[in-house]
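chain below, 225 aa
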Amino acid sequence: MYYFQPFILALELFPREVVVKNTLLALVLICFGFIGLSRLSCPNLFSIVYRNYFSIKFYDSTLNDSEKISPFTNTLLVMNLIITLNVCLVSLVHSTLEVELLMGITFGISLTYLLFSFVSPKLVAFLFGDKLLGKTLGMYTQQVFNLSGLLLLVLALLVLLNDAYKVLIQFFVYFTIFSLPFVKSIKGIRYAKVNNYRWLYIILYLCTFEIMPLLLLGRYFVGKI
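prediction:
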């Protein structure tokens, strides 16, 4: 700790808001590094991510290499989503809490939501007794998360560099966050209809695994952004 004391004292010379903003900017730069590594691993990254976001194909052996992203690249894209989502929320949330505590709460809530989104396809596969359904929903989740993370990265940079346009940018952040379960639900409903699932099962899936988590997330942030 003795060696870090001069650095800590130097930080205290700057306004707290400047330190927080620079920290968030550093996190955004790290995310650009993640995207750069992803781009090296997958040269056609942006076209694949964009195309897969709007794809309605099911998970099967017909998926060719041009539609697939390696696990390493997917991991980097998920890390980018986690960080940029938190940067956007911390930058826009109005709270009386200490910044460190706010960042901890925001990170915990958003990470829980994202982890649940990845686990829920496995739960659905178990409840419905359909492994292909679980794999397809898991693929849809990854596809939606990949593009959403790229959009949030741009929005995070804009919200940090353009204080005057925060009110406008926050609506784009809302839209991107809302699209996480919405687009995935649209894809999931189409899969369920093609495979003749009962509407009761579809409604239970939507309410339990898509709508309820988003409502719990919104319950904390509504009125604070």
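Residues 19-221 form one domain. The CA atoms of residues 59 and 136 lie 5 Å apart.
thats it, cya
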